[in-house]
Amino acid sequence: QLQLVESGGGLVQPGGSLRLSCEASGSTLVNHAVGWFRQAPGKAREGVSCVSGSGVVTNFADSVKGRFTISRDNTKNTAYLWMNSLKPEDTAVYYCATARLGRCDSGWAYSGQGTQVTVSS
Known about the structure:
The protein has 121 residues and is mainly β. It is built from no helices and eleven strands. It is globular, with a radius of gyration of 13 Å. The termini are far apart.
């Protein structure tokens, strides 16, 4: 069974950068879309971005456009979320998930436990 482990979160000052990683084990990410989601305290989980099995990127959140970049390295069975110009409102638990198929709209199958990102001075 596929397992996902997120890492790279932490405390960062406004304007700073972080790189989140989503490492898969138990199965391959090849041919599956991978997405990043986040959930802030008291708010619903929201989609951030997704990269399809063929590498096409879909951004779900307008608030992160131009600041966050999703990527994947199938040789390492890992996906990444590069976050720049971080703002306090980016504070949340960030989760990665894999889709059932290669498209970002094919439904989500597995999710990790999340990594905390806190943006504060």
